[in-house]
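Appendix B, example 12.
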Amino acid sequence: MSALPVPPERGIFCNRTLNLRSIQAIGYDMDYTLVHYRTEEWEREAFEHAARNLADRGVPTEELRFDPGATIQGLAFDLELGNLVKASRFGYVVRAQHGTRLLGFGETRDAYQGTFVDLSEDRFEFTNTLFSLSQESLFAQLVDLLDEGRLHASMGYQAVFELVTWALDESHTKGDLKARILADPDRFIERDPDLPPALADQRAAGKKLLLITNSEWPYTRAVMSYAFDPLMADGQTWRDLFDVVICSAAKPHFFSLPSPAYCIEDEDEYLLRPHVGPFTMGCAYVGGNAMAVESTLGVAGGELLYVGDHLFGDVHVSKATLRWRTALILREIEAEIAAASAFREDEARLEELMTRKAGLEAELARTRLERAHQEQDDRSDGDTGGRIETLNRELADLDTEIGPLAHAASTQMNETWGPLLRAGIDKSLFARQVERHADVYTSRVSNFGPVTPYGYLRAPRSNLPHDAIVRSMSVPLDDTVTYDRTGHDDD
């Protein structure tokens, strides 16, 4: 049977070559990984619950509104200036917003000249999950309230951030928010019919599958049942897909710290029994740690793949601490690829105009140097002044045509912040984190189905700034060579 073509936006994109044949076990996060929420609905509900918590603390919340188009993940909170910022991979701020007001180019330059977004500094907090959208929206609006003198005078921007974080955490821990999700799952959860077959293929290929989630057992059980069971064949349930289920995992500490485990003795009554040693296959647990996972399966390091949506809590820590292989689920990549595809003709025109501009700028630089030598030698040979004036006029005309195209390119996906993975012509800081910590990234877990559990995912040859010159010289390159940048090119 021939395989159906895979849409480009449903591909798996490799930063480091990943041989799925060498993977013995795959661990999955649940929220926004195995279970995809309708982001606007979930984040609106989270925003409204948090706003009620803030009102209980005396915050004026009557005018607070959740705008799903106002934020994206991958921004950083500047706790010193009260800004949301988008930075390039090198930490240069390319766009900034104070409260809900977007800063102009000059304001951004003045605020961040000589300042880089360094995620190791306490000044900056990075947003790296879709659960951050309500947090960003609340922070921006509370900064406005603080600047208007409507919050306690002793508060600063860091205190605003801590207050917003508390309000959202309280929404999750109280259980009211999750109860609302479970009361109306059709509104919040999007089923993926391709997902159960993809996981069944992995089990058929001998992979051990684990669910490792920070959500509590009652919520996990209900959400997984809703998302999977109607799609399962032959009366099976989601439990038939997983060898071990671990809830309340307390990631990221799950990957680095010893923690007690409790076996769920009665899954209906939620009765727990202390558990010591390796996990028992087929059982569900609360707590535990990654070392017990490795002991249970008899595998470690590069033999395990962990798949999650949180750049730090899922991907970074499992790789840095345990050297597990990593896959990031990034749902936005589907829309980002679609937007880039729709912009292809304009992108080609923009590149053509920028090439012409570069040529004119080079000619202008040479002409200015020629005039400088003439002035130094007290000569007036040639009409360098006229040539400079003509070149400046041509450049101004080009900029008039380039401007709208450049603006359209920078506002793809989001009118304020633009694409998630780009910052102008550079990669965004978020893209750099993806590149560093995720071996592969893709929009949804079911995208692993078409490549099969025996697939070999090769990283493409990376481009360097001088490669364009080499290509323009028509130097033949051996396209048959596989360039593996990290040594994970296993048999």
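Confidence is low (pLDDT under 50) at residues 477-491. The first helix runs from residue 39 to 56.
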